[in-house]
Amino acid sequence: MATTDRQATTLALAHALSAAERGLAVIPLSRTKLPALRSPHHDDHTPNGRCHGECGAFGHGVYDASTDPVRIRELFAAAPWATGYGIACGLPPHHLIGVDLDTKSGTDSSAALRELALRHLFTIPDTVVVLTPSGGRHLWLTGPPDAAVPNSAGRLAPGIDIRGAGGYLVGPGSRTDHGTYTTAPGTAHLAPAACPPA
């Protein structure tokens, strides 16, 4: 078991470093898809105490995200149980926005997205698509540098969640309790497409 976990961590680190080479800031994730490093402030009882990493310690979720290979290796060394990595959304140079199309509760989120595209007169561009273990898909888009796109769940339509500023996407190659995230065939070579203004 420990050997398998060590291999999963090594693989996750390799995938994270590859993503960082593409300008995507990353953090280590646990098998539950949550940040692998616990907050250094978990025992603080200060109301509304919000440190975004200013203290210098690891454990601030997306605020730890980096493209620096030295820092990424340090993050993974501090979380040897990590089996995946998260890609922080909303950061330059890509200002990544994730469109999470879920398949839970019998919703057809892909049909809902197509309906939104028809109603608002936009085309869903060819872009990176990550397949989730549950049968869902994550579409990667780039957002405008002058606007912070917020996170939302089901706001656009049932089964469509948005990951924007302050959020993260589970990176392809990550292993979770439910399976492995993979890049959809024919999309790994693509850059994230520009988000349609509509």
Instruction: Bin the helical content.
Output: 10-25%
> The biggest beta sheet, please?
7 strands, mixed
How many domains?
A: 2
Q: Mean pLDDT, as a whole number? A: 89
The first-to-last residue Cα distance is 48 Å
What low-confidence regions span 5 or more consecutive residues with pLDDT below 50?
none
- Strand residues, percent: 15-25%
Radius of gyration: 17 Å
Structural category: alpha+beta
Helices and strands, in order, run as: HEHEEHEEEEEEEEE
**How would the global form be characterised?**
globular
Number of helices: 3
> What is the number of beta strands?
12
Describe the secondary-structure layout.
Blueprint: H1 2-21, E1 26-29, H2 69-78, E2 84-88, E3 96-101, H3 109-120, E4 129-131, E5 137-142, E6 152-157, E7 160-163, E8 168-170, E9 175-176, E10 179-180, E11 182-183, E12 193-194
Parallel strand pairs: 5-12
Antiparallel strand pairs: 1-2, 2-8, 3-5, 3-7, 4-5, 4-11, 6-7, 9-10
Q: What do you see in this structure?
A:
The chain has 198 residues and is of the alpha+beta class. It folds into two domains: 1-88, no CATH class; 94-198, no CATH class. Helix content is 21%, strand content 23%. It is built from three helices and twelve strands; from the N terminus they run H-E-H-E-E-H-E-E-E-E-E-E-E-E-E. The chain has helices at residues 2-21, 69-78, 109-120; strands at residues 26-29, 84-88, 96-101, 129-131, 137-142, 152-157, 160-163, 168-170, 175-176, 179-180, 182-183, 193-194. The strands form three sheets. Strands 3, 4, 5, 6, 7, 11 and 12 form a seven-stranded mixed beta sheet that branches. Strands 1-2-8 form a three-stranded antiparallel beta sheet. A hairpin with a 2-residue loop joins strand 9 and strand 10. Helix 1 runs antiparallel to helix 2 (69-78). It starts with a helix and ends with a strand. The model has no long low-confidence stretch (mean pLDDT 89).
